[in-house]
Amino acid sequence: EELVGYCAWGAVPLTKQSYDLYWIAVAPGCQGEGIGRGLMELAERAVAKRGGGGLYIETSSRPVYDRTRRFYRHAGYAQVAKFADFYAPLDHKIVFRKVIAP
Predict the structure, then answer these.
(1) CB 80 within 8 A of CB 96
(2) What is the pTM of this model?
């Protein structure tokens, strides 16, 4: 009876069918149990109910986020952009996208 995962998403202002996945996090001791994938599926289903569209996720290029980027790729997201030195020198912003059908 404790919170072990969290997901927040929302519509991108001034767009017709674009959504951002702001946060998806799972407690370290619970990772690898499918909780993150379940949260991702809930967000994707909610986007689909609203007519579908692009679901975007951004993250850092730092090595500490390698596992995170693999998670997104494994979930069917493709890297669509890279903003060099966005967060700090040599810390690039990586953007992933998945098209969600209605």
Answers:
(1) yes
(2) 0.93
Tell me the two tokens of residue 47: 């986007």
Report the alpha-carbon distance of residue 96 to residue 39 in Å, rounded.
17
For the beta carbon of residue 102, count every other beta carbon within 10 angstroms: 10
Among 8, 70, 7, which residue's Cα sits nearest to residue 39?
Answer: 7
pLDDT tens digits for range 17-66? 999 999 999 999 999 999 999 999 999 999 999 999 999 999 999 999 99
Please say if the pLDDT value at position 12 is more than 90: yes
Spatial contact of 20 and 5, defined as CB atoms under 8 Å apart: no
3-state secondary structure of 83: strand
Beta bridge partners of 58: 95
